[in-house]
Amino acid sequence: MKKLLAVLALAACAGSASAADVVGNPKAAPNKIEMCIGCHGIPGYKASFPEVYQVPMIGGQSAKYIESALHAYKKGDRKHPSMRGIAASLSDQDIADVAAYYSQQNAQTRK
Ligand code: HEC
After folding, report:
1. Which domain covers residue 41, as residue numbers?
2. Residue ID of nearest Cα to ligand 1 atom 12
3. Helix, coil or strand: residue 47
4. Domains in the chain: how many in total?
């Protein structure tokens, strides 16, 4: 059992090390988030169909959380079909940029 835990801990470290190589650039995000806006309301915009989709707010969530959620959709760990399709079309760099952008939204609206 101890051995298994050690292996899992190592695997977790290796995973986060490779993810850290990609640095998100919020300035590169605006043309990548055009397709998100229709479903995810962002401050200043209104979600098109809040009553049709149960769409979570992503603006202001931590970049880490948004990134890991998108990777989970991409890998299939999260099952929502439209988000899976969208995440699959994003590169690791796209995901980092988009996550950096949305994580700054709270700070902007709170100013
Ligand atoms: C077709 C509508 C639609 C579009 C377009 C869309 N999303 Fe989503 N998104 C959803 C829905 C619905 C959920 C909730 C899915 C679930 O329950 O797993 C979701 C969930 C998420 C989550 C997880 C949020 C949480 O709190 O767990 C993230 C992150 C996310 N979307 C990011 C994006 C990004 C980035 C884009 C653009 C590249 C995008 N989405 C485009 C509908 C959409």
Report:
1. 22-110
2. 55
3. coil
4. 1
